Amino acid sequence: MNRKITILGAGLVGSLLAVVLRKRGYAVTVYERRPDMRAQNISAGRSINMAMSVRGWAALDLAGLRKDIEDLAISMPGRYLHQADGSTVFQPYGSNGEAIYSISRGELNKRLMTLAEAEGAQIHFNKRSVKVDVHTNTLFFEGGETQTADLLLGADGAFSALRTAYTHLDRVNASQMYIEQGYKELLIPPAEDGGFRMQPTEALHIWPRRQFMMIALPNPDGSFTCTMFMPFEGPESFAALQTPAEVEAFFRKHFPDALPLMPTLTEDFFANPTSSLITTRIDPWYFEDKSALIGDAAHAIVPFYGQGMNAGFEDVRILSELLDAHGDDWATVLPEYSRRRKPNGDAVGSLALQNFVEMRDKVADADFLNRKKREKELTLTYPGRFKSVYEMVSFSHTPYDTALKCTEAQDRLWESIRHTAPEDPQLETHLATYDEAVKDLDFGL
Ligand SMILES: Cc1cc2nc3c(=O)[nH]c(=O)nc-3n(C[C@H](O)[C@H](O)[C@H](O)COP(=O)(O)OP(=O)(O)OC[C@H]3O[C@@H](n4cnc5c(N)ncnc54)[C@H](O)[C@@H]3O)c2cc1C
């Protein structure tokens, strides 16, 4: 354990990474741009709720933290659709009752910071790195201070200072892409008696409206955190909603069942920021044996698969596995980490972009519902042979890259079976074609 580790960013991934590396015996120092969020509320209007799935839980298990986090999480075994015609329907996510878990980003982050400190990590707040010299591993902070790191791990999010520094290196490929939609947090507060105003409480609520959508995730205090996703500009857009009356009319037209549950709608709408959504890619994710990127710093993705944090936590788990395999040999660990994780970071970014169309648009279609039903039947009838891409991503450790590669094969399978009955004798032939298409893929554990 002769390397001293510096982590940039005490977000979700940086804090979890600090716990894991401390448990492995490393000295860990963390520099965080923001003030300590446990001492002051810095998340007004950005109280994002996230869905945690098995990949996230597996990393918490690795760190021995499941029990410390469980009370923050509410199980969501399915999505509850609020259709434009006023009807509602519950769609289970898994074939066997599997769930994803609603958890507040802020509360989880605070808890992880406390756990990191309890393990002996030093977190320094109000330390914004404005520049990194990758060759000397020097961090330049706002205000003029500098620190030289022995081994630097950049967990500093989508606009990572370390990532920016990598983009200036020779033969580094990097890209970023904003989508035309933004998001805004809104709130369904608890009822006066402290209970929930909306049922079911154990579900991810979606109001899919094609060009835009709203989702709501439950919180332990009886509230739901809502997120509106909508284009920045255009006839139905954030730009088109300029007055409280326009907002109220829009909600009365498109979300009439939610409107009475949102007493602070217009205040929240104008007080809370409209934030943008970005996908980033970079190659490679490391520099020599000196530094590497992890979490959103390596792969910022749009939130429509609920996988950004899960993917970042999986990075931490895989890094830890590589340390099991190679010990303190970071000159081997860092390139191997980048080689294994980079295709998966890119793949989950693509899956997330694809899932936006599914969430806002297709979930309301009869064909989509039929496909989900048939996929569940196939999963139950042919365990080990068929699993839908959604279930691979959300309920397994199959590499994201494999899940993405299965998308096309599953689209083709659906094309060949969509007009057939489940007991159609041709099914076996179609499944054999599917088997052939995916036979060389790595499905992991
Ligand atoms: C609307 C929305 C919904 C989402 N829903 C889900 C979901 O359902 N499931 C899911 O898994 N993921 C979800 N995500 C994604 C998830 O929030 C991110 O993937 C996750 O927060 C990434 O963690 P991170 O630690 O890598 O980055 P961050 O959480 O961004 O943390 C980075 C940290 O670094 C600090 N920092 C930044 N720059 C510097 C600097 N220059 N110097 C020092 N410190 C710095 C920041 O202050 C921050 O504390 C969602 C995201 C959004 C926007």
Keywords:
445 residues, alpha/beta, FAD/NAD(P)-binding domain, D-Amino Acid Oxidase, Chain A, domain 2, 7-stranded mixed sheet, 13 helices, globular, binds flavin-adenine dinucleotide
What can be said about this structure in brief?
The chain is 38% helix and 22% strand. It is α/β, with parallel strands linked by helices. Strand 18 and strand 19 form a beta hairpin.
Protein model, in words:
The chain is of the alpha/beta class. The chain has three domains: 4-43 and 50-72 and 104-176 and 278-356, FAD/NAD(P)-binding domain (3-Layer(bba) Sandwich); 178-276, D-Amino Acid Oxidase, Chain A, domain 2 (2-Layer Sandwich); 365-438, no CATH class. It has helices at residues 12-23, 54-62, 66-69, 105-118, 161-167, 244-254, 265-271, 308-326, 330-360, 366-381, 389-395, 400-417, 427-438, and strands at 4-8, 27-31, 49-52, 74-76, 78-82, 88-92, 100-104, 122-124, 129-133, 138-141, 146-148, 151-154, 173-188, 204-208, 213-218, 224-231, 275-283, 286-287, 291-293. The strands form four sheets. The protein has a seven-stranded mixed sheet with strand order 6-5-14-15-16-13-17. A six-stranded mixed sheet has the order 8-2-1-12-19-18, with helices on both faces. Strands 3-7-4 form a three-stranded antiparallel sheet. The longest helix has 31 residues, at 330-360. Flavin-adenine dinucleotide (FAD) binds at residues 8-14, 31-34, 48, 50-51, 105, 127-129, 155-157, 161, 183, 227, 295-297, 303, 306-310, 312. Flavin-adenine dinucleotide (FAD) is lined by residues 8-14, 31-34, 48, 50-51, 105, 127-129, 155-157, 161, 183, 227, 295-297, 303, 306-310, 312.
